[in-house]
Write a structure and sequence with these properties.
Helix content is about 65%, strand content about 0%. By secondary structure, the protein is mostly helical.
Length: about 450
């Protein structure tokens, strides 16, 4: 018989219950050992919560989306204005790619073009004029939701009418026109934002004087929505829209009406829910734009690597001797005569395009390569005579510009163009705090964002 604390066979030792657990011995088998992944799981939960809050709480990259909007609106508008004397030969009744050929092609690839609704000259002129106007309104940020949709319709209609007109820049405009329709790209640097600030200040003054809530009427928006709704009804009844495009346009039209009704009559939880949905769609579209630009550069770089002229460093030499790409023959021939410069530019182009997607995780390296790519596109516009291709690529590259630089550039441009009015002195009594209207005028963070 053994007693507590005595040694058993095999060296086992039973602790004395009266003495409690051993202090110096190893932990008992019944002790709970914390999981080494407990902190990792908690950190992942916190990171996921912060990410969801950031994605659903606001529309990210407001300055980047604004500069992309301005860039592509300006690029397409300048292109249409430059080709205005030749518009009929490019996209209209005088095009070598005739109406019947275009109709047969669109029937096979199911592309969208309102120019296929009629082959009359008047219809073509109307669509071309609307494309120019929508480009200008998108660039200025006036009624941006509607302008972005009309901009997309104009780009798709003209480019799908004559697919052989244009260059690689047209493909970039084609893609970005679709993505911009899903972004809230008028939060800054837009007429919508300026009008929203003024309306907020005026409404606040009216509410203080009337002692009740004042609602915005927005007759211009209602009239524009009604006109576009009538056009959509007419196109649907006439059978001009396919099922997919009809669903897209009707959802956009109904969503615009629903957003207006929620802002006017249900400013509580319904408005918060719709704002969250809009932020999610915007952030997703911006992510797709970033991925698209990376895909453009990565595929271009890797395909260049497979070409023998890019491998031996002579790829730049040949376009510098083509008449179609030598607007300045003396400059082109001088550059082509410098073998070292041709080799450096050829290899540098491939290196920058292949490496750029991998530099997004290092801000400094990314900014250096981004500057190099923009300089490269500006050089292409001058040396090879491709201004609109270069403008389109620079507008796409602008999505990676730092926010601090964009804000500084906007301030400098505003001062240069004298767009900023002189600040008005506000006299505040020392015993009175500033009211809400003065806070909106004095604090930029208090200004509502219109998108």
């Amino acid at each position: 018989m053994t007693t507590p604390g005595s040694h058993l066979a095999g060296g086992a030792h039973l602790p004395d219950p009266a003495r409690g657990p051993a202090q110096d011995g190893p932990a008992a088998a019944t002790d709970t050992v914390p999981s080494p992944f407990a902190s990792l799981g908690a950190g992942f939960d916190r990171a996921l919560s912060r990410g969801l809050q950031r994605v659903t709480g606001s529309a990210l990259a407001p300055y980047q989306s604004a500069i992309v909007r301005i860039g592509f609106g300006l690029t397409w508008m300048l292109f249409l204005l430059r080709e205005f004397p030749h518009r009929a030969e490019l996209y209209g009744p005088g095009s070598p790619w005739g109406f019947d050929l275009a109709k047969r092609l669109l029937a096979s690839n199911h592309a969208f073009s309102v120019l296929m609704w009629s082959d009359s000259r008047g219809w073509f002129e109307l669509v071309y004029a609307l494309a120019v106007v929508s480009s200008a309104t998108l660039m200025l940020g006036w009624r941006t939701r509607t302008s972005s949709l009309l901009f997309m319709v104009g780009v798709l209609s003209l480019q799908n009418r004559s697919i052989f007109m244009g260059d690689g820049g047209d493909n970039v405009v084609h893609i970005m026109a679709i993505y911009l329709a899903f972004t809230r790209c008028a939060q800054v640097w837009s007429l919508d934002h300026r009008l929203a600030v003024r309306r907020a200040a005026a409404r606040q003054d009216d509410e203080e004087s009337a002692g009740r809530t004042v609602r915005d009427a927005d007759p211009v928006g209602i009239a524009l929505w009604a006109v576009l709704g009538a056009a959509l009804v007419a196109a649907s009844v006439a059978g001009k829209l396919t099922t997919g495009w009809a669903v897209i346009f009707w959802l956009c039209w109904i969503g615009q009406a629903l957003w207006w009704a929620v802002r006017r009559y249900a400013p509580g939880e319904p408005r918060t829910l719709m704002a969250i949905m809009g932020d999610i769609v915007h952030n997703g579209a911006m992510l797709v734009i970033v991925a698209e630009v990376c895909l453009i550069y990565s595929t271009a770089g890797w395909y260049k690597i497979q070409g023998s002229r890019w491998e031996d460093g002579t790829a730049l030499y040949y376009p510098l001797h083509l008449d179609d790409f030598t607007p300045w023959p003396a400059l082109s021939h001088a550059l082509a005569g410098n073998d070292v410069m041709v080799m450096l530019i050829t290899y540098g182009t491939v290196i920058v395009q292949v490496a750029f997607p991998f530099t997004l995780f290092n801000r400094r390296v990314k900014n250096v390569l981004l500057t190099g790519m923009m300089i490269e596109h500006a050089s292409i516009a001058i040396v090879l005579g491709l201004p609109f291709f270069s403008l389109a690529m620079i507008a796409a590259d602008a999505v990676f510009l730092p926010t601090g630089f964009l804000r500084w550039a906007g301030q400098q441009l505003g001062r240069a163009l004298r767009l900023r009015r002189p600040a008005q002195a506000v006299v505040i009594h020392p015993q009175r705090a500033p009211d809400a209207s003065e806070s909106v005028q004095g604090d930029p963070a208090a200004e509502p964002a219109a998108g």
